[in-house]
Amino acid sequence: MDDRKEAKNRIEKLKAEINHHRYLYHVLDKPEISDAALDSLKHELARLEGQFPKLVTPDSPTQRVGGQTLPFFKKVPHRAPMLSLEDVFDEGEFTDWIGRISKLAPNEKLEFFGELKIDGFAVSLVYTTSIFTIGSTRGDGQTGEDVTENLKTIEAIPLRLREPKESEIKNIGLDPARVIKTVKSGEVEVRGEVFMTKSVFEKINREQKKRGLAEYSNPRNTAAGSIRQLNPALAAQRKLDFLAYDLVTDLGQTEHSQEHDLLKVLGFKTDKYADKLSGAAAVKKFWEAIKKQREKLAWEIDGLVVSVNKNQTYAKLGVVGKAPRGAVAFKFPGKESTSKVKDIVVQVGRTGVLTPVAILEPADIGGVTVTRATLHNEDEIRRLDVRVGDTVIVQRAGDVIPDVVRVLTNLRSQNAKEFHFPKKCPVCGQTVMRAEGEAAHRCVNKNCPAQHREGLYHFVSKKAFNIIGLGAEIVDKLVDAGLVKTAADFFGLKPKDLLELEGFAEVSANKLIASIQKSKKISLARFIYSLGIIHVGEETANLLAMYFGDLKDLMFSSVEGLQKVPGVGEKAARSIKNWFDFKDNQHLIAKLDNVVEIQKMPKVAKKLAGKTFVFTGTLETITRDAAKEKVRLLGGDVSSSVSKETDYLVAGENAGSKLDKATELGVKVLSEREFLKLI
Ligand SMILES: [Zn+2]
Questions:
Q1: d(CA 499, CA 504)
Q2: Measured distance CA(569)–CA(574) in Å, rounded
């Protein structure tokens, strides 16, 4: 048997296997193998295809990010118009809709199908002989734009339709022969929503912030912008998701619910909350239930899509304007409301940051009464041009503090007062500074009582000392009673001290003291984090602990020494040095050292100290960034080009000219496996 034939065989098998696992992961949400194992299958496929480029097919999992940057998007006429939905905003409007359609379809017991209305971007996907061929945006409903290459980057979209089993089709109540024939030799059109999960959105914004770039306003616009990228590689970075909700092609289905079932067996991820609902009352119940879960969902939704389940009735009800009569978007209460700014106050946080807060007339936003909204910083106040007395639009999203999105300046009265950012800390009266490149003003007083108190809250919080039962309220009482001045004082508290405070009895006092004592043992990483040093979050604390292994070494490290820690930049290094240079902090550390037990980290041996590494080619089991970080953590250096000073060249697959140069200079070359062994 020749190589090519063998490779072809293997490629087909690999593709089927990868598709099967994609289906298990995205559609059934029941992965059977790890991401790493799946990556390794993809890697083998890519390698074989590299050897036999003619065997690459458009549905190959390697083709997800294969597209070139486009000069513009082609126009695509839709086979059937992509309609929009009429909105209903409350139960009254919903009941009106039921009344209207009942009149048009009398003598019919109406059954509905309810599904989540995801705040995303509608697209149409066309599969020809099972292969994904054209993906387009809604556009004006008649004609959209060809965004096939960008859609291919979304893992939840199959590049080839899954061939359903006969039994699966029978279970849906359809004719297997008809379905399979159309899937294999005809054209199938599917519609659904492209969206970005909340967690991906937050991650992207964290990155933007880190790089000093503007943050995106919401997941919907970010997803839409990503799909309308001319460069598919950029779209791929956005980690978009997709849920299918409509099967346009007639495969014999008579109900909308059957379309959802069919889409699932064809390899699409569908809404797992979607359900058949037997009447208007059931729809309202479903709407209430989803509304309650709304904040917990992984993506933003703004209501339900409610459709008449029977396709014949749906068609009979017809279209009015651009919207079908047989379906509505049953919206949830808005996340925005208007309110009036009664006052603007400034809060001082743990790190001294001054945050302006708008005090509002109570406003109901989606069932929650809001009386305060953050104004973030002085720049934001200027941008909004918000004044005391203004009418503003307030937004609430998830668990975060509500914020002011707009000022309705037309409603401004003559008495509206401009706000001037304080030049002195509102708590301690000391000077306020704004560091270059930072949006925040900080109180520079290291003894500022506001900062101090916030620092104590941080010290006992979950990711720091995690003292259960010791919340902000009790910390306040302890500070006000003079029982706690510094964080070390928590550990000297006795039950009788607590009994002096309001709200404590013997049992609760004993319980809290036991909880404090229990938290005395702490890892070095948590200890560093609990100190609340500016620019030292959980992640940095971890890196510092791993690098130094011991608190003393960290305390006496220079700014340059600190910057050697991977992930620690100049800003953080200076901030750490400043913190440990401050006398009061040194006293605090000394006191804490007497009462708590810091578990030393097994110090990472600096076994690569003085060695310089260069990487080339593709590494299989570790990303290049992770490999570089490992080297730095072990005290080594990483360089980008090979020279006489290079100690090791780590050569992955497809190593290029660097390998030649290393051989020429006599630099030691390591394979990936040898490198891993070394570290
Ligand atoms: Zn202050």
A1: 5
A2: 9
Query: Is 261 domain-assigned?
Result: yes
- Give the closest residue to 442 by CA, choosing from 434, 453, 452: 434
Q: Which domain holds residue 20?
A: 3-56
Residue 539 CA, ligand 1 centroid: distance in Å: 27
Distance 350 CA to ligand 1 centre (A): 10
Model pTM above 0.70:
no
Are 215 and 319 within one domain?
A: yes
Q: Find the helix or strand (DSSP H, E) in which 467 lies.
A: none
Q: pLDDT (tens digit, 9 = 90+) per residue, 290-338?
A: 988 888 899 989 899 999 999 999 999 998 878 899 999 998 877 788 8
Give per-residue pLDDT as tens, 552-591: 999 999 999 999 887 788 889 999 999 999 999 999 999 9
> Is residue 437 situated within a structural domain?
no
Q: What does the pLDDT look like over 485-531, one tens digit per residue?
A: 999 999 999 999 999 888 899 999 999 999 999 999 999 999 999 99
Q: What is residue 179's predicted lDDT score, i.e. its pLDDT? A: 96
Strand order across the beta sheet in which 241-247 lies: 131-137, 121-128, 187-195, 241-247
Q: Is 117 a catalytic residue?
A: yes
Catalytic residue among 42, 117, 577, 658: 117
Distance (angstroms) between ligand 1 centre and the Cα of 517 equals: 31
Give the span between the Cα atoms of 570 and 572, in whole angstroms.
6
Domain boundary among 299, 316, 331: 331
CATH code at 14?
Answer: 1.10.287.610
- Are residues 475 and 412 part of one domain? no
- Residue 1 pLDDT > 50: no
CATH number at residue 490: 1.10.150.20
Cα–ligand 1 centroid distance for 562 (angstroms):
28
- Tokens standing for 73? 């998007």
From the list 254, 245, 117, the residue with the least C-alpha distance to 191 is 245
Same structural domain, 167 and 194: yes
Domain identity same for 117 and 170: yes
Dist. CA 445 → ligand 1 center (Å): 6
- The pLDDT-based confidence of 398 (bands split at 50, 70, 90) is low
Q: How far is the CA of 159 from the centre of ligand 1 (A)?
A: 59
Report how many domains make up the chain: 6
